[in-house]
């Protein structure tokens, strides 16, 4: 069975004071069905792991370098992320793809390194507005899945996040039918490439302007196993209702 996952991506937000939000999530009664993951900036990873100790909340990084070590000033390796006690790493977020020119091949290489370090990868895919308007959504998603996910994927080392670029941080959300079409397509592609046994066990998250008011509807869509949440994960008061909605779905 695949797990439901509520994942928060703090992006380049948060200092030590922000750990109070994580502590509040960690202190809430553990969801019975959903797992919770928070991905703070690299500077907070170790302290976040300590703050979440003895709770059900898992901690993840937001990126890692493709190399396991070496002369890469300012970068963080997968081994370093894992060394903090983090269990997951987000890879291929559209902001990384845009801001740092990351290609599918880059993401694939990072995933191999992350798996070698024992991390679970949350690999992001998603179309731009112009790609959706040109009716190219499924082609784009198919190409990103094929190019970004290494061959050794399993339900234990991989989570896929579908994040339409135009829905991230904009308040715009695809219709439930649009979300369902893409999630069904991702499931079909995962089963076709990795076999039904693996393809069925990979969790597929939706991301893009998820908030308490739309979470229940989004979690009712077929093949939506949870959410990757940006803005609404920064405050426990905003994120907890999303976790609760997923747990109840
Ligand atoms: C994200 O950054 O992955 C994201 C989905 O952001 P937001 O929830 O703010 O749209």
Can you give keywords for this protein?
about 250 residues; binds phosphoenolpyruvate; globular; 11 helices; eight-stranded parallel beta barrel; TIM Barrel; alpha/beta; single chain
Account of the 3D structure:
With 249 residues, the protein is α/β, with parallel strands linked by helices. It has a single domain, classed as TIM Barrel (Alpha-Beta Barrel), CATH 3.20.20. Helices cover 41% and strands 16% of the residues. The chain is built from 11 helices and 8 strands. An 8-stranded parallel barrel has the order 1-2-3-4-5-6-7-8, surrounded by 7 helices. The radius of gyration is 17 Å and the shape is globular. The structure holds phosphoenolpyruvate. Residues 9, 11, 163, 168-169, 207-210, 228-232 line the site of phosphoenolpyruvate (PEP).
């Amino acid at each position: 069975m695949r797990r439901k996952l509520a994942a928060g991506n703090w992006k380049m937000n948060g200092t030590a004071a922000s750990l109070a939000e994580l502590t509040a999530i960690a202190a809430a009664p553990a969801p019975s069905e959903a797992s919770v993951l928070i991905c703070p900036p690299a500077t907070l990873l170790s302290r976040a792991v300590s703050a979440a100790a003895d709770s059900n909340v898992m901690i993840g990084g937001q990126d890692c370098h493709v190399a396991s070590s070496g002369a890469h000033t300012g970068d963080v390796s997968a081994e370093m992320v894992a060394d903090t006690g983090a269990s997951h790493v987000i890879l291929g977020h559209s902001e990384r793809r845009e801001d740092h020119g990351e290609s599918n091949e880059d993401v694939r290489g990072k995933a191999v390194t992350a798996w070698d370090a024992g991390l679970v990868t949350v690999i992001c895919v998603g179309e731009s507005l112009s790609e959706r308007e040109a009716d190219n959504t499924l082609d784009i998603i198919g190409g990103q899945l094929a190019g970004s996910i290494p061959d050794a994927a399993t339900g234990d080392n991989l989570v896929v996040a579908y994040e339409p670029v135009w829905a991230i941080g904009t308040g715009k959300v695809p219709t439930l039918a649009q979300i369902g079409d893409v999630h069904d397509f991702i499931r079909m592609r995962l089963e076709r490439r990795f076999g039904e046994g693996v393809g069925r066990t990979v969790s597929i998250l939706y991301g893009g302007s998820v908030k308490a008011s739309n979470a229940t509807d989004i979690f009712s869509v077929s093949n939506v196993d949870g959410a990757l949440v940006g803005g609404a994960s920064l405050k426990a008061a905003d994120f907890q209702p999303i976790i609760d909605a997923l747990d109840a779905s």
